[in-house]
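hi! just following up on the protien thing from before. the input was this:
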Amino acid sequence: MSNSTATGNPSSAPEPPATSRPSTRHQDSSRVEFFQMMAWRWDITTAKKLTRARTPQGRIDPREWAGMLRLIAISTEHAAHVDLSEPLIVATVPNGGMLIIDGWHRLYKALATGVPELAAVILTAEEELACRIFGGESSGEVDEYGDEETYGGS
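and the predicted 3d structure came back as:
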């Protein structure tokens, strides 16, 4: 459950993006928390409901994901108060591998404080689709592994 990104100095957290950059994780006026990465957006409120009572299925080494923090707007104030015992939520993005969709502030704090790994829950293909607001396009077909095939586009 690791990403191919790596850091040169695993003991320190990278600098967060400037606060003037648009945030990729928001709560809109309807109080739905969401995470957006490029042309994909997920409903984190729904993802949390789906995974609330689930035992984490994996562990994530924050150092392997540190390079991705350059793409995420991090509030260091918020990161200082997050609970590292709360599992990250990971989605498998069709044709794109795994992506943390909830827990970037926890990952940042883990890097800053030297925590070597974080618990994670992984959304099933059906759960990922249920949480996806937009991005990708579902074909409705099932591949030889029993997963719904999806094709790029938005």
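DSSP finds five helices and ten strands in the chain.
The CA atoms of residues 80 and 109 lie 7 Å apart.
cheers
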